[in-house]
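Practice record 12: protein with zinc ion.
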Amino acid sequence: MSPFHHTLAQLASLATIRGDVVEAKLWSSALDLARAHHIESELDAGPLFQDPPPGINPAILEHLRRAYEAGGWVLVESGVADLPADLRWLFESGAVTLDQLATVHRELGVTSAADIVAAVREQKLRALHGLDETVERAVAASLSNLRARIPRIPLGRAVSLAVKMLAALRATPGVAWAAPLGSLRRGQDQVGDIELIAATDQPSAAIDALLTLPSSSHVLHRSERRLYVMTNLQQIGVRLTHPANAGADLLHLTGSRAHFEALQAHAASKGFSLRADGLRTADGTLVPAATESDIYGALGLPLIPPEIRGGDDEIERAIRGELPALVSLGDIRGDLHMHSEWSDGRDSIGAMVEACCALGYEYMAITDHSPSSAASRNLTIDGVKRQADEIARLRERYPEIVILHGCEADILPDGRLDFPDEVLRRFDIVLASLHDRSGHTPDQLMERYVAAMKHPLVTLIAHPTNRLVPTREGYDLDYDRLFEMAVETGTVLEIDGAPSHLDLDGALARRAVAAGATVSIDSDCHRSDLLGRQMNLGILTARRGWVEPRHVLNTRPFLDVHALIAAKRASH
Ligand SMILES: [Zn+2]
Ligand SMILES: [Zn+2]
């Protein structure tokens, strides 16, 4: 085949993968036309356009002209760039040709990494026309680099992109339920991709609903039960699955891979076999699974929450009946960390109070930054008194919520706090945080934390690792010591829900509560309209840390919160 013919065949394959049957047909007809007229390269095609033979379908001629004018390879490159990311990766790895990729896609419905892994594991590639064991081995060999070149997406951004699509799916008639998949559903702080699933018998209605969203103008792939769109420079994939076995898809595609493999081993020990497409008994009968609980239940397990499906010890704990009762949004009674226009927040205290009331909170704390914080605006000592007056007026206007006047005080390089004690004493609650390393070693940073925790006026350490997702790692501290000191001094540690913090993260939060520390889950919000969303991210992160309501300060009634603050203040 000449390079030009090959290019036309590739364009047909790319259209097939996009799910565009009409385009695929037009490109293969363009290839037939080129062959019939002995057009071996773009350059040969010119005369055909000047004097088109009668009876040629103008649409086919138009496609050939596009390849002639733009250069066929340019069209191929932009088509490859528009493939769903994992398919693009597979093609670029060199393991398959575009024709083979189109076959794999068409015959097995493969569009994502999870599909590729399952197809390789079940040796389905070698059986396809135009593929063999060598190709399957090449794909298997490249799996270890899977996603290495695809940047991960911060959780906050992924959630904000997914919510609109999830809402549209849930509002579509015939959709029983819709959920995120993969690391997004597990609440990982950075996610590999945004994939959603919905259970429905009417997939075309759901696809039509998604295509009317203004954000889904750029379609990468569309087939009966799949849609991939590009929105805000980010790919979002949607699967529409049969409700009768949707639980099996949800379970497999939620992962993690380690959890699923451990569950497969557990299934085998019970005489079942668990695969991507569902659970089967020893004689091969599929156990119908409309929900995930149908599968866990058949295996003698309770539903394991997605956030703790990390492949750690969750299955053993489930077998022993020792799964944690994870904290959820409904347990939260208040938010103890947020900013107003008195420091770097966008909104007035009044707007923040109103939003907290709308969320149904019993209490809240306004905690603006102290003078030497690097924030764009800070609370001054003089401002503290005026802010207190404003809060006093708001307390009269909003008797339904307890408004705490707090601050987020920087821990200075020598371990002192950024307000003198006589000022700190005027606040109802004091949060202490490190925003600036000041060139210190981990041991020196720890000494600053210890000094702050020993301070009787400090109730809470905010975002303890001070990482920035996705650009800055947290401090490399002796966290066991930090947790021990928190317990010893009666200081609360924060799980900060701001998308750039998510700090403590799940793994550290699990260690903190295991050590006996009390945590609080806060929004650290700078805008009234995001208070709810950031609290949600904090909850997801806490759940990844096996955190239960009993570990969390702000699941408690206000009198208990007040008692904890007062007890530490009185203890020195
Ligand atoms: Zn902070
Ligand atoms: Zn803050």
